[in-house]
UniProtKB/TrEMBL annotation:
<protein>
    <submittedName>
        <fullName>VOC family protein</fullName>
    </submittedName>
</protein>
<dbReference type="InterPro" id="IPR004360">
    <property type="entry name" value="Glyas_Fos-R_dOase_dom"/>
</dbReference>
<feature type="domain" description="VOC">
    <location>
        <begin position="7"/>
        <end position="131"/>
    </location>
</feature>
<dbReference type="InterPro" id="IPR037523">
    <property type="entry name" value="VOC_core"/>
</dbReference>
<dbReference type="InterPro" id="IPR029068">
    <property type="entry name" value="Glyas_Bleomycin-R_OHBP_Dase"/>
</dbReference>
<dbReference type="Pfam" id="PF00903">
    <property type="entry name" value="Glyoxalase"/>
</dbReference>
Length: 139
């Protein structure tokens, strides 16, 4: 196995609207060339997305209780450039998500930071961001 510099194995988000949430993430993550990599719905309602190994899961809560969005928690997806950040934002809104911070600079996160925030169908806060080192990020 090649060495992985990430400190995380994977992240899972619970959903109360499994089929709709999967359709939402199919559209939104496609803006980064990310797709489904593992489908275990034969055993449990869960789908994993990634480029190489299961990193991001959408699933119904294992304990059978309703999924809840946690205040103060969000998931950020790495974009390559501004265009991917904008594509992510537009795809999320078109798929039923709600804007929670339009694409743009966030100087308080660093001079090279460019990102956006949305709420998915269950209210989870998701983000697309790009590090634009060496580029003037101000609009």
């Amino acid at each position: 196995m090649m060495e992985n510099p990430s400190i995380l194995s994977h992240v899972s988000l619970g959903t109360n609207r499994f089929a709709e949430a999967v359709a939402f993430y199919d559209k939104v993550l496609a803006t980064f060339g990310i797709g489904r990599i593992l489908d275990v719905t034969e055993h449990f309602p869960a789908i994993a997305y990634a480029r190489a190994y299961p990193e991001f899961w959408i699933q119904q809560p294992f304990n059978g209780k309703p999924a809840e969005a946690a205040n103060g928690i969000h998931i950020a997806f790495m974009a390559k450039n501004r265009e991917e950040v904008h594509a992510f934002y537009e795809a999320a809104l078109a798929a039923g998500g709600k804007g929670d911070g339009e694409p743009g600079t966030r100087p308080h996160y660093g001079d090279a930071y460019y990102g956006c925030f949305v709420r998915d169908l269950d209210g989870h806060k998701i983000e697309a961001m790009a590090w634009l080192a060496g580029e003037v990020v101000g609009e």
